[in-house]
Amino acid sequence: MRWDGLSVDPKYLEALFAKYPERLTPQDLEEIFGLSRNTVYRWLQTGVIPAYQVEKTWLIARDQVKDWVWENRNTLRKGQTPEANTADEADQDQP
Fold it and tell me: For the segment 4-13, what is each residue's pLDDT rounded down to a tens digit?
């Protein structure tokens, strides 16, 4: 798979979600992301995580969440390189 001119391997994401069923629970999200119960429900209620609420039940599709994680990951953009700390920045970090 190619993304913005970079070759990327989504296998790490497949492995993360492999042990979970097609329909996730809020508890599954707590485990996957290491979030508190309150944060998971806040993210669900505000639409941060893709899901549907039917009365008091959350319908959370594993593949939609996986796609959401993939689309919102941090990566280097085409033509960019990581910047090394300069000596000035290193000096500022010291007390």
Answer: 444 456 788 8
